[in-house]
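Narrative summary of target 7.
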Amino acid sequence: MAVAGIIAEYNPFHRGHAWQIAEIRRRLGADTAVAACMSGNFVQRGDFAIMRKHCRAAAALRGGADLVLELPTPWSAAGAERFAQGGVGILAATGVVTHLAFGSECGALAPLAETAAWLDSPAYDRRLREFVRGGASFAAARQAAVRSLAGAAAECLSRPNNALAVEYLRALGTQGGGIEPLALPRVGADHDSGEESAFPSASAIRERILAGAAWRELLPECAAGILEAEMAAGRAPVCVGNCQRAVLARLRRMGEEDFRPYDGGGEGLYHRFYAAVQSAASIEEILERAKTRRYPMARLRRLLLQAYLGVPQARRGERPPYLRVLGFSERGRALLGQMRERAALPVITKPAHVRRLGGAAERVFDQEARCTDLYVLAYPDLGQAGPGSEYAAGPQMESIL
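Modeled conformation, tokenized:
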């Protein structure tokens, strides 16, 4: 039996995600198991997930996934390279995943693989330095460097899902353990697009939800019902703006050098960011004052989020130290049984058991628990925002949803 891995945020789980799971089974066989490595409470664009992770895992199970594992914050709130490094590391460590499925604008493996190969070549490093010294942003310099080497194949880097797919392939090359890539076309509206579509983008859906506009018809019932219940309970929708005063208080207590660990590229961005914090009165104003052509907004949002949480992105080559189970179906239960024998990392189904592991596993899990305590402060109803929920939350099971 094939086991397809997916690296996702499900923020929220939408029709495009449901289509992807169905398409995986159409291509690999109806009995294919689907294991998702999903971002926890914080996402790559530098924001809080719109709904807590266990509820997003439950929506994914209802939408066809069999197993949902957590991608911890140092990887989930990181740039594309570290995000891919963490996700592939988790799926490879299960010992059961046979394929990595991912969406891309081009929907073809060849140009993505060629681009990935050039990015790992010494020639690319030399060209990249030349374009960065010329003043280009990292994203523009990267595309220009690869274009000078690979020609037309490099055009794939201009689209966000293609660029992430390239990072998945690079990670598979170093830690994939024989996992086969499966490139799927992205369906529906473009990433971060508000265009009308039968498959609207996650950003367009979040925008509608946060604006208080009609949103239910944009989501499959498997996700809509869960989100509706969370909203009624005062635990959704969640966004960084809900706890803006707490964020500003944390940032204003930080000295200039305190921002250095969150710089990411080591280019001195933290100097500019610190200056923005000292002169701005809102999160958006900080981001606008720090923004330049060289530094994209997503990177600035990640810097802000990481500084607020006190959690830098993972180091290059660093991998998650455990497999945290957020939910499983009956078929997922069978996968877990196989993982007990084959997994290269400890499998955590009961949070209290992490204390037995000690070392890096306990350190990262404790860090995640502190992040969750900050996440819940963004609930619309602070009466729901008590601390300590991370150690009390067990996996979601499809059979009892």
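The chain has a mean pLDDT of 93.
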